[in-house]
Specification:
alpha/beta, 6-stranded mixed beta sheet, globular, disordered N terminus
């Protein structure tokens, strides 16, 4: 059976050749993306009037919004390895609370924390604190129905079932009408939005993936991709893990003896190389945000929906859905942190206490002196002023 990498799929789609899916049916990935994008555009247009930008003050009109993007951290809808720990109703109820937001933006993006596959042997043997996640193929259409379009498969669980598991994941994602990226053989994903190209690149400190520790190499990849994109979003999976890692330190982070990257240096370098927006995952807890040269960096969005195999105790269960509005240059106009809460093996629920909002605002103040952002009590935010968003702090 042929394995179709995303790079090959994009090349084939560009010349109009059909791409075999996991079950032998032929489909055009470009056509799938275009058709799905058209439906997304209709949903976004229907709700645009109900989503005003934050006021910019009486002295200047609010910048025009060109892009609306939603981002979340780790998503893992149960695993059938080593024993079945799967949600009822194939997980269709898990994301219902967030679905209206995910479906209303131009593109919704998340970190796919594990493989979508059947069978195979896990690569997680002989390691400290080993966990392997294998979601059944029925997960992919559930994610698509919730509103997701693009996925990062650059993380420490994407290869839990080796190259065969990665190939099955890509096939399942594409069959459901989505795209993923992150492996060196899948350096980018491109999604059409109203005749423009939105690109996603994903990085992690793991073998076979775009390496966030190789900052110079990452910049080269980003510069090459930038030429093909109208908006370029970079995501990374890095840093320490757990409740003790909600701060974003200066310098390289080490966890369980592993170099998990210098996420501040990486994020700044990605924007310097041409990215428009950077967001992270990996710590399983939310971190702060900052503006750098008018471009937004969210250092970790934590767990979003991680059913069963990942702890959601306390702050690990505070789930952030980050919605941002960007101008035609990719600069932040406004945004909102939507607060949800996870309870073990239960659907996602809105959090009236806004726990993740409070955490992210506090860490933004603690670690980035406010990050050049102003917040209201509901999690809405916008640039504090031009000087604060220059990155010269």
């Amino acid at each position: 059976m042929k394995v179709w990498t995303l790079g090959a799929v994009l090349l084939i789609a560009a010349v109009g050749v059909g791409v075999p899916d996991a079950f032998g049916a032929e489909q055009s990935t470009a056509a799938v993306a275009s058709a799905a994008s058209a439906k997304t555009d209709q949903a976004a247009a229907a709700t645009a009037a109900a989503r005003p930008a934050l006021a910019s003050g009486p002295s200047a009109p609010a910048p025009a919004i060109a892009w609306r993007v939603a981002m979340v951290g780790d998503v893992m809808l149960g695993s059938d390895y080593p024993a079945a720990d799967l949600p009822p109703n194939e997980g269709r109820d898990l994301l219902a609370a967030a679905q209206p937001i995910l479906q209303a933006v131009d593109v919704a993006i998340g970190n796919l924390e594990g493989a979508i596959a059947q069978g195979g042997q896990t690569t997680k043997t002989g390691c400290v604190r080993c966990f392997a996640f294998r979601m059944p193929p029925t997960v992919a259409p559930v994610l698509r129905a919730a509103g997701f379009r693009l996925w990062s498969s650059a993380n420490n669980h994407a290869s839990d079932f080796g190259d065969a598991g990665r190939a099955q994941t890509t096939q399942a994602v594409q069959k459901a009408g989505m795209l993923n990226t992150g492996a060196t053989t899948q350096p980018e994903a491109r999604w059409p939005v109203r005749g423009r190209q939105l690109c996603l690149m994903a990085f992690a400190p793991n073998m076979g993936m775009n390496d966030l520790r190789d900052i110079s190499g990452a910049q080269d990849r980003i510069r090459r991709t930038r030429a093909r994109c109208d908006l370029l979003i970079v995501t990374f999976h890095g840093g320490g893990e757990g409740v003790d890692h909600s701060h974003t330190p200066v310098g390289t982070e080490w966890f369980l003896g592993e170099n998990r990257g210098d996420v501040r240096a990486f994020a700044h370098a990605a924007l310097d190389a041409g990215a428009d927006l950077v967001f992270g995952s990996g710590p399983h807890i939310a971190r702060g945000m900052e503006l750098y040269h008018h471009k937004l960096i969210a250092y970790s969005l934590g767990n979003f929906m991680t059913y069963g195999g990942i702890s959601v105790a306390g702050p690990l269960g505070w789930s952030a859905l980050l919605e941002v509005n960007l101008d035609d240059q990719g600069r932040l106009v406004s945004g909102q942190i939507h607060a949800f809460r996870q309870t073990s093996r239960q659907p996602l629920a809105a959090d009236p206490d806004l726990s993740v909002v409070k955490l992210m605002v506090q860490r933004t103040q603690d670690d980035f002196a406010g990050g050049g952002l102003r917040f209201d009590a509901q999690g809405n935010f916008s640039p504090a002023d031009k000087a604060a968003s220059s990155g010269q702090r």
